């Protein structure tokens, strides 16, 4: 009887410690998108061409990088097709070629979860912590 009770307590603690699958997927999307943004910024500076990023408004349609040469072959699909994105305060992101690009933010949503990727224009894109103030343009 004691063993069963201990097992129930341990299983309960483990289930509380596990994160929601949507939160994990959204974190993966955010890390990947941040890396893609920084890669596009670097390529934009190297080539001297303006690079832009825009999400599709249709669910599951992904996003698009424009201004890069075709051999850059940037992905345009989300890891989870339920992911949605919105550029806050503008229709698209401008990722270069200037080294300082201006403050920009993107809201990512997946099911009931959301987070914001932001840059102050100099630092790399990163996830804003809950309750953190966004960089001001």
Order of helices and strands: HHEEEEEEE
What is the average of the pLDDT values? 85
The whole-angstrom Rg is 19 Å
What gap, in angstroms, lies between the N and C termini? 62 Å
Keywords:
single chain; 137 residues; alpha+beta; minor pseudopilin epsh fold; 4-stranded antiparallel beta sheet; 3-stranded antiparallel beta sheet; elongated; disordered C terminus
Short account of what is shown:
It contains 2 helices and 7 strands, in the order H-H-E-E-E-E-E-E-E.
Q: What order do the helices and strands come in, and which of them pair?
A:
Elements: H1 2-17, H2 21-47, E1 52-55, E2 63-66, E3 84-88, E4 93-94, E5 104-110, E6 113-119, E7 126-127
Antiparallel strand pairs: 1-2, 1-4, 3-5, 5-6, 6-7
